[in-house]
Design a protein that fits this description.
seven-stranded parallel β-sheet; 12 strands; dTDP-glucose 4,6-dehydratase activity; dTDP_Gluc_deHydtase; lyase; NAD(P)-bd_dom; NAD
């Protein structure tokens, strides 16, 4: 049975990846989920699989080298999928130090632990061991509005403390691949959306605020463009890179769904109006009048767009979910998990975990 160590598995993309992997492989794999349970980590995301015999949760900080090394010492880890990261741009502008510590130092700790566990006396590595570092398209900077795409060969040009910290972590992974021939890959993805996404991010924020009749904040003129990727398509891409990708390579994972932020908001409002049944009081709350333009974010990149040509040609992956279908799936999930949203926005889930782990 192959053992996967997933960092940040209680977060948005990590938890969706774990769900995807168990759905695909069931009892053929074992997953160890390591998460610090910061504000973005929520074990409710994994409630339905927490009792599986082939699933283990470990509360640990990826910056804690002793805790991470202990996991490798006690388990024969075959795959590392490294999601754990601070990821919100606004938070990075307010507190860059946290991002550098988690995203850079934490990645270094993970690399050193895996290298120590997998390296043979002759400097080569045990067969069939792989480390996948999950990164972002934001490391490439900003594109012109009238064309061009991010390729794996695009020079890095990060513009926020968040993207700079991720670019730094990418460079660390690359240095280990180049220096030690460490068995790894890097993936750089476009903006994800889907179930379990923390509501400070654009799409869940707009869904949640619109249903409550709250203002829908839009940075600047609202015409910043992002490439949107349904999270389960991303999970599939990560799995395929680990199984079919060439070692030491970087693969861009994009959704072919470029849209302006203001377009996203209008699509969400129209879809909510369509999906809410007649007589539901929330239907009257959902309105374009809620849209409120606010001062633009500092260093706000204008456009991101990934060309996923390499992963299509070498691995056979392609985005299966068009945005119109994906947003309906996402909204339907939020309709069916209103308690999850209430617990997250109230912060009750954090109080529960603090109490639970304090007593252990």
């Amino acid at each position: 049975m192959r053992t996967y160590l997933v960092t940040g598995g209680a977060g948005f993309i990590g938890s969706n990846y774990i769900h995807y992997m168990f759905k695909k492989y069931d009892n053929e794999i074992r997953i160890i989920n390591v998460d610090k349970l910061t504000y973005a980590g929520n074990l409710e995301n994994l409630k339905d699989i927490e009792d599986r015999e082939n699933y283990t949760f470990v509360k640990a900080d990826i910056c804690d080298s002793e805790a991470i090394m202990k996991i490798f010492d006690e388990n024969d880890i075959d795959r590392v999928v490294h999601f754990a990261a601070e990821s919100h741009v606004d938070r990075s502008i307010r507190n860059p130090e946290v991002f550098v510590k988690t995203n850079v130092l934490g990645t270094l700790v993970m690399l050193n632990a895996a290298k120590s566990a997998w390296e043979l006396p002759d400097g080569t590595f045990k067969p069939d061991k792989k480390f996948l570092h999950v990164s972002t398209d934001e490391v490439y900077g900003s594109l012109e509005e009238d064309g061009g795409f991010f390729y794996e060969t695009t020079p890095y040009d990060p513009h926020s403390p968040y993207s700079a910290s991720k670019a730094s972590s990418d460079m660390l992974v690359k240095s280990y691949m180049d220096t030690y021939k460490f068995p790894a890959n890097i993936t750089n993805c476009s903006n994800n959306y889907g179930p379990y996404q923390f509501p400070e991010k654009l799409i869940p924020l707009i869904i949640n605020n619109a249903l409550q009749g709250k203002k829908l904040p839009v940075y600047g003129d609202g015409k910043n463009v992002r490439d949107w990727l349904y999270v389960m398509d991303h999970a599939k891409g990560i799995d395929m890179v680990q199984e079919k990708g060439r070692l030491f390579e970087t693969y861009n994972i994009g959704g072919h769904n470029e849209k302006q932020n203001i377009q996203i908001i209008h699509i969400i409002l129209d879809t909510l109006q369509e999906m809410l049944p007649e007589g539901d009081p929330r239907k009257e709350l959902v309105s374009e009048n809620l849209i409120t333009y606010v001062e633009d974010r500092k260093g706000h990149d204008r456009r991101y767009a990934i060309a996923p040509d390499k992963i299509k040609e070498e691995v056979g992956w392609y985005p299966e979910t068009c945005f119109e279908d994906g947003i309906r799936l996402t909204i339907q999930w939020f309709f069916e998990h209103e308690d999850w949203m209430k617990n997250v926005t109230s912060g009750d889930y954090q109080k529960y975990y603090e109490a639970m782990y304090k007593t252990k």
